[in-house]
């Protein structure tokens, strides 16, 4: 039986047994973003961190979300975007992150984003 201290590695193994399903842009006007799904442990419990977007951002005002944002050219990859945004938004340093894997892309309905999520 697996114990809870192995949970991150179970998630990593599950994510790495399959290729994440991408959403192809196919020349449309979809924008691209990336998020980090922060999994952390407090005492003996694993938790996921959510943020609440401010009312001053362009899209998704006041919504509950994961740290993340629009992919910028200088990021180099969606993963780099997710890590940069997590650092900017919640002060999570890249050196403190162990990326377990990537989940399937998701599309936002209201703002036309393709979102690349990383755990």
**Share of residues in strands:** 15-25%
Q: Helix-strand pattern, N to C? A: HEEEEEEHEE
Task: Determine the mean pLDDT.
Answer: 90
What is the CATH homologous superfamily assignment? Nucleoside Triphosphate Pyrophosphohydrolase
Which parts are unreliable, with pLDDT below 50 for 5 consecutive residues or more? none
Integer tally of domains: 1
Largest sheet: 4 strands, mixed
Query: What is the CATH-assigned architecture?
Result: Alpha-Beta Complex
CATH topology: Nucleoside Triphosphate Pyrophosphohydrolase
Please work out how many helical segments DSSP would assign: 2
Radius of gyration: 15 Å
N→C terminal distance: 23 Å
Q: CATH class, please?
A: Alpha Beta
Number of strands: 8
Shape: globular
**Content-based structural category:** alpha+beta
- Helix percent reads 10-25%
Strand order of the largest sheet: 6-1-8-7
What does this structure look like?
The longest helix is centred in the last third of the chain and has 13 residues, at about 80-90. A hairpin with a 2-residue loop joins strand 2 and strand 3 (about 45-50). The strands form three sheets. A four-stranded mixed beta sheet has the order 6-1-8-7, with helices on one face. A two-stranded antiparallel ribbon has the order 2-3. A two-stranded antiparallel ribbon has the order 4-5. The protein has a single domain, classed as Nucleoside Triphosphate Pyrophosphohydrolase (Alpha-Beta Complex). It is built from two helices and eight strands. The protein is globular and about 45 Å long. It has about 120 residues and is α+β, with helices and mostly antiparallel strands.
């Amino acid at each position: 039986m697996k114990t809870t201290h192995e949970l991150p590695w179970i998630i990593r193994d599950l994510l790495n047994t399959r290729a994440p399903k991408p959403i192809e842009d196919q020349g449309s006007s979809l924008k691209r973003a990336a998020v980090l799904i922060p999994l952390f442990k407090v005492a003996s419990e694993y938790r996921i961190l959510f943020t609440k977007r401010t009312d001053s951002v362009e899209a998704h005002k006041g919504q509950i979300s994961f740290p993340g944002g629009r992919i910028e050219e200088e990021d180099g990859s969606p993963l780099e975007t997710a890590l940069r945004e997590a650092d900017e938004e919640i002060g999570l340093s890249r050196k403190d992150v162990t990326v377990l894997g990537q989940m399937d892309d998701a599309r936002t309905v209201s703002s036309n984003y393709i979102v690349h999520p990383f755990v």
